Amino acid sequence: MITVRDVLSRPVFRTAVIAGGLDGLDRPVHWVHVGEIPNLGQYLKGYELVLTTGVGLTSLTARYRFIRGLITAGASGLVIELGQYLPQVPPDLIDLANVEHFPIIAFHNPVRFLELSQDINALLISQHHRILDDLEALSQGIRQAMLNTEGAVRLVQLLFESIARPVLYRPRDPADTPIVFGEWVEQPALPSDVALHPVQESTPHHRIRQSVMVFGEPIGDVFVANPGNPIDERVYLALDSTVAALAQDFIRVESLDRLRRREEGALLEHLLFEENPEPYLCQRFRGRYRLTPGYAYRVLAIATTTPLAPQMVRQLLPANMICAVYNQTDQTIFVVIGSAHAIEELPHLLPSPGMTPGEQPLLGISSQYNDPADMHQALSEANDAAAIARYCGRGQVSYDKMGIWRWILFTPHHHLQRLLIEPELGPLLQRRDRARLLETLDALLTHLDSKQAASHMLGIHRQTLYARIRVLEETLGPDFMAPARRTAIEAALMAHRYLTGTPAPKRQG
């Protein structure tokens, strides 16, 4: 940006003096205009440096009208050739210039306005070329950054380096971190409107803003502090180029993310749902997710009945663990990879059963595996663990901690019925009062050494409990509470409740 001060530093102005308006030397100059008519201001657009011989400034009224017209039009300053018409700058002009900070420059000797115009216009054209060179350098930097996929941070940095003013890029997603270069007195808040072109912000701190648009929607805003007053055209053009590059980079990243998710989904689909996947798929998984010797994985099956469950689990995973995700309609499947020790400790990092019931994600965790070819088995374990988590109302269940549930889920239902439930509970299940007796049996199994605690759990008198125990002895046999028989009956009771959909008692949670 060329100012009046820059113009005065030119050799052709070495004999000029500043007659008034010293505080306005930083006014920008966009062009030079020669004029003498009193209403010259009506024909100006602003930021012109006006040259005059003073022929129309001989009277107070004419001078006031002339100079006031220039100030109103936003002219940069006035250059007067003193001599035939004005031997000196009138005091009234000087006073007005000082009040309005409007520079008045005087030549006491004759000067060729053509030479002044040519010199200043050459300076302006040279400045324009420098702007174009700077913008070309910025464009080259942007192209290089895009080719090297250096991302939004590099693009904002290039803008900062090009215009040498504080720059901030604030994404519209509040979860994304703003990108800041330079010193900001106060960082701007997330805007609610859209700036399709650079606009000046009406804030205590002078800045401009332009929104980054992708397919008609704003994805972020770029702010530039102290852009100059008036705003340098170079800042406008540099900002516009950077905003366009940020939009292109966003589209590139989104496209790559979609491609990556699609490739990841296809690979996981083969490994999760094929019992004998092709060896090259296993090798690809090892390379993609760094499943090297000393590393292992677990499969997590997370029901989406709690909408934020997948995000909750992802946030709890340490940064040094790699996570591959496969989404289904009713659940999200995570394959979590890390060092063997970290994967062994993984269940302790995830939501615990002590959480608020409405916030508990229904989570099943497989055993620890090393070979991607076993992922189908790991998924089966995770699904079994998730089924028990749903049945028992627990936040999470790990397959390697399921105990007898592993055998119950693995055994076909008709075998459970024939080999376990009927031999152990058959006579009891035939009775009309079976519900009351099953409840009593469960209380006795829960409180093996305390009939008082069992009766309290049932809410009955101890003598009533003894009467029920006699009925159970008659139905199941007098040895129904002997250790070996008791274990079989407890397993049969668990299997029966699970197959009939009867809610699990609290003692199993």
UniProtKB/TrEMBL annotation:
Residues 437-495 form the PucR C-terminal helix-turn-helix domain. Residues 6-123 form the Purine catabolism PurC-like domain. It comes from the Bacteria. This is PucR family transcriptional regulator.
